[in-house]
Write a structure and sequence with these properties.
5-stranded antiparallel β-sheet, 369 residues, 27% helix, alpha+beta, Uridine Diphospho-n-acetylenolpyruvylglucosamine Reductase, domain 3, globular
């Protein structure tokens, strides 16, 4: 089948890095003509996370990289999808700015495209927003080899049905992301972490109470009998809040939050299945505290070890959320929460619109998609 190239693709004026989009289009055209599915790969850091195992031929897009445009005054950055998160963060740090959703870099292998496709965010997500919230626009190549642009590169351009944000969590099933524009944020003047010894139930109550206050709370997690609250903002506000809230002030706290974000805390070590429960932050603990890490002020619960899927699904549903087998376990089975008939039909319609031949990451989200 011929590969059609749309006319709404604007070539970047900055040639920083390497633009391999033409090679990506050619590879997709060949795959489509041969009816050969592909697995889109960047840094390869998340292949065994979030979705089902996709055994299609690899389409490596890691060479398509580079920061295309950076406007510090406008708080906007645009980069190609294969650009490592670490490279973007280094550029922003030089300008005293940051990605507010604190994505993991997974040892420098995580890319911008993969981070958006997986909708991955760090400990500051409830306060700084998700990557989905920060996306202004994307360029992608769909399953018909059409090069499409959605959204824009400035905040006022985002209007109507926002297809850009639809890519968050799609796991590459709707297209090959080639360029992404994001809102960025200034770094806080001061950051301070407070630690408290308490049970999981006490921690949940404390996190929800503190989150309701008009204070510079920017992250909160509990593990092994310790609650950690991070304050970020103006030095005066952080100092005043710390004096009011008490607790032990931690030195060198950046390493603690980095290890949580990068999932390098001892809790995450080993090959045991790792489950992620997304719940109402005030929901009571529904799993064994010894195998649980509570993050996002209570809204995200990590559970380690073999767990009955049905029990986790019921517990999560009762708590107003859902459970996902994030890592490990049987990745040939369904790893994401089940959909009802309406949701399933919508997913199938979207897939057909973007990838009618089903060549992009087949089965990655669900076995039937």
């Amino acid at each position: 089948m011929p590969c059609q190239t749309g006319t709404d693709m604007t070539e970047p004026t900055d040639t920083t890095g390497v633009d391999t989009s033409e090679a990506i289009v050619a590879a997709l055209a060949q795959a489509r003509a041969r009816k050969t599915p592909v697995y889109i790969s960047g840094g390869g850091s998340k292949r065994l996370m979030l979705g089902r195992l996709c055994e299609a031929a690899e389409l490596d897009v890691s060479a398509h990289r580079g920061i295309v445009d950076y406007q510090p005054q406008e708080l906007v950055i645009t980069a190609r999808s294969g650009t490592p998160i670490a490279e973007i963060e280094a550029t922003l740090a030089a300008g005293n700015q940051m990605l507010s959703f604190e994505p993991p870099s997974f040892g420098g292998r995580a890319t911008l495209g993969g981070t958006l496709a997986c909708n991955l965010c760090g400990p500051g997500r409830p306060w700084g927003g998700s990557i989905r919230d920060m996306v202004l626009g994307v360029e992608l190549i769909n399953g018909k080899c059409e090069r499409l642009r959605f959204g824009g590169k400035v905040m006022k351009n985002v209007a109507g049905y926002d297809v850009s944000r639809l890519q968050a969590g799609a796991l590459g099933t709707l297209g090959v992301l080639t360029e992404i524009s994001l809102k960025i944020a200034p770094r806080a003047e001061r950051v301070l972490t407070l630690a408290y010894t308490m049970s999981a139930d006490q921690a949940l109550q404390t996190m929800n109470r503190r989150a309701a206050e008009a204070k510079p709370l920017s992250a909160a997690f509990w593990l092994d009998g310790q609650l950690y609250l991070r304050l970020s903002g103006a030095a005066s506000a952080v100092t005043s809040t710390a004096a009011q809230w008490g607790g032990e002030r931690l030195e060198g706290d950046a390493a603690l939050w980095r290890d949580l974000r990068e999932m390098t805390l001892p809790f995450f070590a080993g090959s045991a299945p790792l489950w992620r429960l997304s719940l109402q932050s005030s929901a009571p603990l529904c799993t064994d505290a010894q195998s649980t890490l509570i993050d996002w002020g209570g809204a995200q619960r990590w559970v380690s070890g073999d767990q009955p899927r049905d029990s986790l699904d019921r517990a999560a549903a009762d708590a107003g959320g859902h459970a996902t087998l994030f890592r490990g376990g049987d990745r040939h089975s369904e790893v994401r929460p089940p959909l009802d008939s309406v949701q399933r039909r919508l997913q199938q319609h979207l897939k057909h619109a973007f990838d009618p031949d089903g060549i992009l990451n087949p089965g990655r989200l669900y076995s039937w998609l």
